[in-house]
Amino acid sequence: MIITTTPGVEGRQVRDYKGVITGEAIFGANLFRDLFAGVRDIVGGRSGSYEKSLREAREVALGELEEEAHRLGANAVVGVDLDYEVIGEKGSMMMVSVSGTAVVIE
Hints:
- The protein has two helices and four strands; from the N terminus they run E-E-H-H-E-E.
- By secondary structure, it is of the alpha+beta class.
C-alpha cells in the first residue's frame, strides 16, 4: 500500500477514486510521563516518552487508514494529512487524526 502526502504517485495513473478515508488514535496522558515531561520543560531537553506516544499514535492512525483503504479495494492513499490535537478535560488526552483519498493506481 502506497501512502503519500502528494496528490498522486509519480509515474502511476490513478484509475479509480474510492473516496476520502480517515484514521484516528486517542491516547490518555500518563501522570508519571506528565511529571517527567514537566521537569524536562524546566531544565530543557526532549521528552522521549511523549515522542514515543505520538509515534505510536501516528502508527495506529495510519494503520486504520490503510485498513480502510484495503476495505474499499484501493491500493494507495494520496493527499494524506496528519493532525495532532490535545483533547479532554485539562488536555488529558492526545489525538492523532489522518485523512486522505483512497485510490486505485496502475
